[in-house]
Records
---
Amino acid sequence: MLDVRRLVLLRDLAAHGTVTAVAELHGVTPSAVSQQLRLLEEETRAELLERSGRSVYLTAAGHRLAEDTEQVLAALERARARLRAGSGEPVGPLHLACFPSALASLAVPLGAALEGTHRGLELHITEAEPEAAARLLLQRRVDVALVYRYTNLAAPRPAGIETRLLQTDPLVAVLRDDHPAADPAGAPVDLRELADTDWITAPPRTACGDAVLQACRSAGFTPRVRHTCTDFSAMVALAAGGGHTALIPRLATHGLPPNLTARPVTDRGLARTIETAVRQGTAHQPAVAACLAAAALLPEASGPPRS
């Protein structure tokens, strides 16, 4: 019989590409991963990996087994869910990962809703960006995650995880009131109107930074970046102090300083989707199902632009 833990390592190698990445995901050494993969080859009596120097690639047989592993893992999760389904009211700890800008507006109300309807559940919240949240899910360190995806970036969903759309969070331009594009009537801003201003963005190779850069380039210019940071509240403070432009999710515009305004942009498709994420096969587990149901009933969290 094949060792499921070794199958998971093969699946993760197919998804992440390197033994080092798989080792980091599971908190073990690369040599330990390599040893387990060799044992899996012995168990299957098949050549699953092709080794070239320090690089390792899946063979055709390896890819087929990695794909079949997804079905095996989902079946095991469904079996666990069926065993727990007869236990009645969901009880015990439930671990939720949530990205920073949704902690106050989504995770806290979700916790209150669960506490009000399922007193036997004990919610534990961990702050984590989507990539880290996916790792925590696969490591079984969290049960549910609130994640986001920018609509203008092609971000693949991690293997072994299924998501459900919760809401859409449009990007808005944060401007000082004296900015020429800060129309007091609240008209949408064409990004081309902001081509000659200084910008505040997230760093390159972050989801927000790449989404803003892609949006500006699609509008025909490369933003002149003055400041880079990952904290949306810091972006707002910098915009208020220096009059620079920021393009951030509407969810992050609560409590703007009085000299700032948030304006929608003309490209209404420019947004991030907020989703719930769980491991495949776990959505019907009582505690997870309760969390997903409560999340679906949350009022849409939004920060309407100030006029």
---
Amino acid sequence: MKKLLLAAAVAASFVGSLAYAEDAKPDNEVSFNIGAVSDYRYRGISQTRLDPALQGGADYTHNPTGFYAGTWLSTIKWTKDAGGSGNVEWDIYAGKRGEIVKDISYDVGVLSYVYPSNGLSNVPGFANANTTEIYGQVGYGPIYAKYSHSVTNLFGFVNSKNSGYLDIGANVEFTPGYTLNLHAGHQTVKNNTAYAYTDWKVGVTTEYAGVTFSAAAVATQADSALYVTPQGKFTGKTSIVLSALKSF
């Protein structure tokens, strides 16, 4: 809040109160989002056979405590490609965020990925696709480090409980209205070490007419013989991914 030099102390107090009222957030906030991507990449791996996806979600935040909860959905194709069924990913999550000390932020929570009627538990060599992870993140300014740990089997991998994903990145505004997005991550798959890989991303985000647009180069070191669709598409290939997102 900007301090104003005023002749009278009463006037200063009054103006200060008005500024606080303008800046303060409501105790309870609800927001919605809807968007589209040219390829739904999650941890560098395409969930849509390198094809576009429609996405949307809703979030609730209790600002006084930092507690939040939300849900998000996307069209997918990977469960069918693995021999199961279903064409939707439905995420449900909740957590708490805030500051540890000044300028050091934290975010902890739980996230469940639900794949309705995925049927992968009936496919030889696969487990149910539904996955739950707990996560923790620490941030300093635009820089963050996050670790996610699976408390169930991971995305259909058999006997893969206790897999982990480390995500390090930064989102830096390099010129007014444009943000540079940097990310590097490493996925481990418990008892399925051949499926471990590293991924990275370099992108730019901007907003125009109330819509957030982004373009990013995405790549992985995933094994192209393992992360491949029945149509022969390598789902971890280096690509440019475009997206548009509207929040309201």
---
Amino acid sequence: MIMDPEVRAYYERGGELTRLRQGRGRLEFHRTRDVLRRTLPPPPARVLDVGGGAGVHAEWLAADGYAVEVIDPVPLHVEEAAALPGVSARLGDARDLPVPGGQADAVLLLGPLYHLPERADRVRALAEARRAARPGGTIAAAFISRYAALHDSVYHGTFTQQAARAADYRSVETGTIVSTVDTGFRGYLHTPEEIPGEFTDAGLPEPRRYGLEGVFWLYGDVNAWLDDDGRRELLLDAARKVECEPSLLGASGHLLAVTRV
């Protein structure tokens, strides 16, 4: 199992244990759950959560009645996910899944594809998801938008720093992002237009693409909306209304692509 040591170190610091449970990350969490609940086969379907981290999505999937297995390359994540009720977990690589073919009702790739800078590796991971899924099964994959790093830097104010600007401009041009912060992120950022081609080359039908956060993740008061139950539901409904609008896909922080085998 090969993993970029910098990426492994990033996750072994434990940031993924809380990222989607606090702050603006909650919008990504709620919207991912919203789309998956509308597109996954009904429980008790078997879900393979590849690169599922510490089990933030596996937890609610199991509570909804799904049979969930997390496969992740980070031992800390596997340990945390395995402790969740109704969730099993083991070490594994998205490009070479340690599972038999054709048995999963749904395969989720909610992280691996933005840690594989080589296109051939991303296509291989999607092909492995196709192999693991039964005929008619669902494949759902998450992507970080090509423009997310630049937008995020302006939001947080780091864009005033020359090194950060250079990294952000490089990410827009090449898709490769290497954070200038020692504890920061390394990965690959997709344009909405390149996603269908990777699915096609993996032998999968063209997916439906969803903008998860839309432009709402850039609003200064987004946390206030997420803190209030009523306003949060209004925000999620607004995001749902424009989730597949082509002209807005690239503005979203994350994209979700869903298809059936």
